[in-house]
Amino acid sequence: MQSENNKSVVLEIKTEDELHSAAEQLLKFAGETRNFTFSGEMGAGKTTFIKAICRMLGVEHGMSSPTFSIVNEYIGKNNRPIYHFDFYRIKSEREALEIGVEEYFESNGFCMIEWPEKILNLLPEDRVAINILVENNQRLITFSHE
Ligand SMILES: Nc1ncnc2c1ncn2[C@@H]1O[C@H](COP(=O)(O)OP(=O)(O)OP(=O)(O)O)[C@@H](O)[C@H]1O
Ligand SMILES: [Mg+2]
Questions:
Q1: Domain containing 74 — which CATH number?
Q2: For site-directed labelling of 91, which of 3, 4, 21, 131 has its Cα 20 to 30 A away?
Q3: Whether 13 contacts 141, CB under 8 Å
């Protein structure tokens, strides 16, 4: 089931298999926007959804690195880079600046940002915000243009 208005879309997801179609809808919703933030409690499914989106963007391997750094880079269709950030462990926005987030956000690669709450002052203006809410046996995934 899905509800939609001009500004946001809400999807009810019951199984991981449905993330494939959710990823397709998100990319359509995003249009030209290349920066995405993912919010939701620990274990909500942010990384899992990002992986589904990356597969949709043509990433075939290199997605299950055991040691996750703040930023991981994958290559999608047409050699388009996808930068996957996890800011959970950073202590200050300065750490994010030091790894060069501003350059990543201004590049023409895709940026998938977990824990955007940690870098509120650095977020790119044009972005799609994804929120995942775990509810009983399902997840509500909301997309909105910020
Ligand atoms: N849509 C879904 N349906 C069912 N299970 C899911 C779904 N999305 C994720 N999961 C399961 O939930 C667990 C946690 O997922 P994931 O690591 O993606 O969460 P996260 O939000 O990235 O957590 P963290 O905040 O720790 O980074 C995984 O075991 C995954 O298989
Ligand atoms: Mg995660």
A1: 3.40.50.300
A2: 131
A3: yes
pTM over 0.85: yes
Burial-class residue 39 by CB neighbours within 10 Å (0-12, 13-18, 19+). middle
Output the pLDDT for position 69: 85
Please report, for residues 12, 23, 29, 99, 101, the alpha-carbon distance to residue 142 in angstroms, rounded to integers and kept in the order given.
9, 12, 11, 29, 25
Question: What residues line ligand 1, using a CB cutoff of 6 Å?
Answer: 13, 15-16, 19, 40, 42-48, 114, 139
Q: Which residue segment(s) compose the domain that 93 sits in? A: 2-145
Compute the distance from residue 45 Cα to the ligand 1 centre, in Å. 3
- Could you write out the DSSP letters of every residue in 123-140? --SS-EEEEEEEETTEEE
Tokens 């055991």 sit on residue: 66
Q: What CA–CA distance (Å, rounded) separates 90 from 21?
A: 32
Phi first, then psi: give them for residue 51, nearest 5 degrees: -65, -40
